[in-house]
Structure prediction request, 382 residues.
Amino acid sequence: MSNKTTSLRQDRTDTSRPSATGDPVLRLDGVEKHFGDTEVIQDLDLTVRDGELLTLLGPSGCGKTTTLRLIAGLERADGGTISLRGDSVVSDGAFLPPEERDVGVVFQEFALFPHKTAAENVAFGLTDRSGDERETRVAELLELVGLTEHRDQYPEELSGGQQQRVALARSLAPEPSVLLLDEPFSNLDVDLRVEMREEVRRIIKEAGVTAVNVTHDQEEAMSISDRVAVMRSGHIEQVGRPEAVFQQPESRFVASFLGHASFVSGDVDGDVVHTGLGDVPRERIQGLAEAYDGSAVDVLVRPDDARVRAARDGDGNGRVKHRRFLGPTILYRVELDSGDVVGCMHNHADDVPLDQPVTVELDADHDLAWFPRGAPRVPGDD
Ligand code: ATP
Prediction:
């Protein structure tokens, strides 16, 4: 989006939630990383605040894991600075090695020691404490992750979820300033993944640790995070509360990446915006500045914002072209007479005929996001 366009729009960038107002614990400024000729991270800025759980979310290859590895010191940045609790760990020419950074990492594959028990795995990394102190801390952590009863079991005797709890307890044991989690749920089966998301959030919050999580799973990011940073091609496209990035996306990419998105074309005309779904009161469109009078815009419509029914008395405005049965819901794809395509989510029992005249109506109790027409579209927009 051009600067001109941005300046015409009302400011929608302040999407932090109150919990993101603590002291900064981790700061990345202008971080860059190349692999050969490929610029993988470009001018990346990010601040993570005390006690916050922030998720880096983006498509495969956008640079999430590389960012995490740069924070941990497992990769060297080619430019920019990284600081932890105000102390620089990466700056011009300076590089603090991983073992000297106050950072814990939970890897995808958990990386537990197979010949150590759960308790011994957790105790690893507590060598600077006396025997009694170590034992007390291990017991505390095993209780925190709900594994007191399993302290003497070896990793192969534990389920995937229990192994993850051990890995988490081990990383939390030295009380790191920041805990980094690299796709922590990807090795768990689907049911366990959902259960462990809630558990991991609970454990992180009870431990009070500042955490950065990495995932390409939108639902995971939105369900566990205080804030989500949406990444694209090595930079952060938007950062904010999950509700804010979902409801007020600042780019078509963010709108599309966070869920099914239809873009319905509209013409701004005084108090209304004329669209293929009828006239939408201008006040229902988020922050549509006066400068856009007479302009063409695209209005973001999510599938739960639109209802489709068989046309009555010739009031149709489109035809259903596709029906995707998803179990509890059905996603209808409707081609509007205006040429736009819109998705409509319905209960599994709502049957709407294919290829017959239908009427799509907006059914949203929130204001709708929009984008100036003619701004470059990105793949996957439609
Ligand atoms: P995924 O979700 O698939 O794990 P990601 O967003 O975590 O992806 P990265 O693993 O950070 O992405 O990789 C970003 C880009 O950098 C990719 O194009 C990847 O191929 C490239 N890359 C990562 N590590 C290296 C390396 N050691 N050498 C060369 N290229 C690399």
Notes: Residues 35, 40, 58, 60-66, 216 surround adenosine-5'-triphosphate (CB under 6 Å). The radius of gyration is 24 Å. The chain is about 20% helix and 35% strand.
